[in-house]
Inverse folding.
């Protein structure tokens, strides 16, 4: 390659890099960019190169050559994606030095670069090892590669041994053969976030595999026993966030009961879990989210610190959370069947509730419903209300009984699964009970096979809503159909 072509390629790479980083540079070091008419030559002080006229007319001052290498390292770390970082670091020697000595974040994610799936497993392993081994101070490492069956254990062990002393956040979702004990390798280090998937955890020893700095733990499709999970939580004295996604709870008998106890947890997310009994004992819990779970019994033992409780597509026969609801502020229930009056009695204790969402909620007794009077009396501080019922006509009318006002409700969201002629009456009844309402969202489902009756019903509903919009002009109406 001739010297002239080499110079032009260097300039082209630098200009592309400048376009990508102009916002970061201007924020970090007052990088000066002046737009000027095309000039006969372009000078980049770092290289002292000259080229033919530039069509864009950009002139870059000599500030780039004075950028501290630590700042360049921060810029590369903000990119994150391994491919982008490697390309950017090839600009010049100073950027390569920043990549080696000051890069803090590196991510190998198949969503960032689709070509990952065209590489063989061996090629991927070599690519990851070569890239990581060029750095000296990684704090955040993500290896989230789909389309890969498994990595070799030797490669993963070498990777973790090389980075464990500086690593703060680790996300890893590729199977290994044989299984790698990440806890043993990364224990007693400075990890703050650990997110692992498709793995197996056995024989946890909290005295040896201790994570004194860990605050967030996520286990997805991980095989672990209830005993080891409790021991792991014990080994994390500062843990605040726990995510359990499709866990395989290893049990010795057919009656599966899991008891978890942790005094420091503030947020718990559980998805795709199937158990007979699940007992959660936490003193500081503020956020709890259950999704796609099948449970015979769920019991929450706490000290009244829970502020957000969300249930999404959960089947549970016995829900015991009475003592934890005193300070609840957000309750979000969707795709859930409420069994018996006990649930409503439990919810009535949440006098500090500010947001209530009951979406696609069914009652085991079809004549039962949470009426507006109960909502107004039990939740006087409520400001956001979302309701979507599969209502029968009689239940719909019963839900409007009473006269108590929802004084603090400023935003409301309503929906139907099957529209009836009385739906617009229900909307109007709700509007009358919310004198300070400012925004109303209506979500409707329209079936593909529309009959003449459905057409007529929808037309009548639209006409009624238009009349309500004229009557309540201070309310912002928004209607969405599916």
């Amino acid at each position: 390659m001739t010297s002239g072509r080499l110079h032009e390629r260097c300039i082209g790479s630098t200009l592309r890099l400048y376009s990508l980083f102009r916002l970061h540079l201007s924020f970090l070091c007052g990088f000066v960019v002046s737009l000027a008419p095309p000039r006969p030559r372009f000078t980049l002080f770092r290289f002292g190169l000259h080229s033919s006229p530039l069509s864009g007319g950009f002139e870059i001052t000599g500030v780039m050559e004075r950028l501290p290498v630590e700042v360049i390292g921060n810029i590369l770390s903000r990119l994150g994606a391994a491919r982008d970082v490697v390309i950017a670091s090839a600009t010049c020697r100073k950027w390569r030095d920043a990549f080696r000595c000051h890069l803090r974040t590196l991510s190998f994610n198949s969503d960032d670069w689709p070509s990952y799936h065209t590489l063989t497993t061996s090629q991927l392993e070599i690519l990851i090892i070569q890239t990581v081994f060029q750095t000296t101070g990684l704090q955040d490492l993500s290896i989230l590669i789909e389309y890969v069956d498994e990595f070799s254990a030797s490669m993963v062990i070498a990777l973790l041994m090389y980075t464990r002393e500086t690593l703060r956040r680790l996300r890893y979702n590729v199977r290994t053969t044989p299984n790698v004990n990440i806890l043993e390798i990364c224990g007693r280090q400075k990890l703050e976030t650990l997110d692992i998937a498709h793995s197996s955890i056995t024989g946890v020893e909290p005295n040896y595999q201790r994570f004194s700095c860990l605050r967030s733990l996520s286990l997805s499709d991980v095989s672990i026993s209830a005993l080891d999970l409790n021991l792991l939580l014990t080994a994390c004295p500062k843990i605040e966030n726990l995510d359990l996604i499709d866990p395989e709870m290893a049990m010795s008998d057919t009656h599966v009961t899991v008891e978890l106890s942790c005094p420091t947890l503030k947020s718990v997310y559980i998805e795709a879990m199937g158990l007979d009994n699940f007992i959660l004992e936490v003193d500081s819990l503020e956020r709890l989210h259950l999704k796609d779970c099948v449970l015979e019994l769920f019991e929450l033992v706490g000290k009244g610190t829970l502020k957000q409780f969300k249930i999404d597509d959960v089947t549970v026969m016995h829900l015991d959370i009475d003592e934890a609801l005193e300070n609840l502020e957000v309750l979000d229930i969707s795709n859930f069947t409420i069994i018996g009056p006990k649930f409503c009695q439990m919810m009535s204790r949440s006098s500090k509730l500010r947001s209530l969402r009951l979406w696609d909620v069914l009652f085991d007794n079809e004549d039962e419903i949470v009426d507006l009077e109960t909502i107004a009396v039990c939740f006087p501080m409520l400001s956001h209300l979302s309701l979507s019922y599969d209502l029968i006509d009689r239940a719909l009318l019963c839900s409007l009984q009473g006269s108590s006002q929802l004084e603090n409700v400023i935003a409301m969201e309503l929906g139907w699964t099957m529209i009836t002629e009385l739906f617009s009456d229900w909307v109007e009844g709700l509007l009358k009970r919310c004198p300070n309402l400012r925004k109303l969202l209506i979500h409707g489902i329209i079936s593909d096979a529309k009959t003449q009756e459905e057409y007529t019903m929808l037309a009548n509903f639209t006409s009624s809503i238009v009349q309500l919009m004229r009557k309540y002009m201070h309310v912002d109406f928004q209607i969405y159909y599916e």
User: Anything to note?
Assistant: The first helix runs from residue 3 to 29.
